[in-house]
Design a protein that fits this description.
The longest helix has 8 residues. A two-stranded antiparallel sheet has the order 1-2. It has a two-stranded antiparallel ribbon with strand order 3-4. Helix content is 13%, strand content 13%. The chain is built from one helix and four strands. The chain is of the alpha+beta class and 60 residues long. It is rod-shaped, with a radius of gyration of 23 Å. It comes from [Clostridium] methylpentosum DSM 5476. This is Large ribosomal subunit protein bL32. Keywords: Ribonucleoprotein, Ribosomal protein. Belongs to the bacterial ribosomal protein bL32 family.
Length: 60
């Protein structure tokens, strides 16, 4: 069985574990009603529509 020859330093260990900064930016899609950018699979914050159906009633 393979055994490490030397102890892995804290810096080397933490460098390996810190791949969190490689996260992707969130994707955005256009609303079908108003054309505003919104998060996918979410209700549009501008007009209140989701998949062409009014979910939240917005006052104009």
């Amino acid at each position: 069985m393979a055994v490490p020859k030397r102890k892995t330093s804290k810096a080397r260990r933490d460098k390996r574990r810190s791949s969190v900064w490689k996260l992707d930016t969130p994707a955005f899609s256009k609303c079908t009603q108003c054309g505003e950018l919104k998060a996918p699979h979410k209700v549009c914050g501008n007009c209140g529509y989701y998949k062409g159906v009014e979910v939240i009633k917005k006052e104009a």
